[in-house]
Amino acid sequence: MRTVNIPALQKGDTVGIVCLARKVSLEDIHLGVQLLESWGLLVVLGKTIGAEDYYFGGTDELRTADFQEMLDNPDIKAIFSARGGYGTTRILDALDFSTLQEKPKWIVGFSDITSLHCHLHALGLESIHGTMPLLMGQPDTQEADETLHQALFGEPLAYALPAHAQNVEGTSVGELVGGNLILLNNIVGTASDIDYEGKILFLEDVGEYYYNVDRVFVHLKRLGRLQKLAGLVIGQFSDMQDTAVPFGRDVTEIVLEHCAGYGYPICFDFPVGHVTRNLAMIVGREVTLEVTPAGASLTFAFTQA
Q: For the LD-carboxypeptidase C-terminal domain, which residue ranges apply (predicted)?
């Protein structure tokens, strides 16, 4: 399915913030709201901001209705998930994306929002894997915030990285897909699942065990998905854990073992994930991945909608 380009934001546009997963308060996101307003945007808060149903930002029904209202509102030009956590997959099948397909707008978030990015990609829509209001506006998140601004406002987007000893050299072109490794595994076989063939896949995760990362790579390999990629970008796997009996392989070694011999470029240590330098990634956009002895680059095709 052809990916639909989304109009760039303009100063004066209205954007919305909703809670799709874990609960969040207005105080939690006030710096993010201030930053968006400093970009010249008008910010509307959903009914889920400040709501709670134990862990979640309101009941499934409230989170569904809140997000649906913003999806259908033609005055809202972009929607931000306030934070991640867990809960997005609980409401995905109850949402109607027909209005969004007719009049696309940016959807922004990462971590648990990976399932939503994949769902939108399966519908032929771009979205932005990027920082969220809970994390925005901090002194050490400036680069993450700036790249999100670039993506939202339709500016050219390209990243250059230093050399990494375990990188696999090569050049490839393909649509960018990916996000949180465990979420990608959890949506296999569902309506949110994606086609990996010819795609450039980026991955990140936090707080996982090494053996579980290996288990997911084994699963993806057995599904025939790793073999079909055009390229692979390994982001930040933060706060990794090990078992009492050490697993004996780190993430880089796991990736190289399961992707050996496929012939596509692999870039390690990309700044995306649960870190302050979480660069914005346009999911569904065609990118060029180039990995050389001097370093790596990821360049997004420049489109004007």
A: 174-289
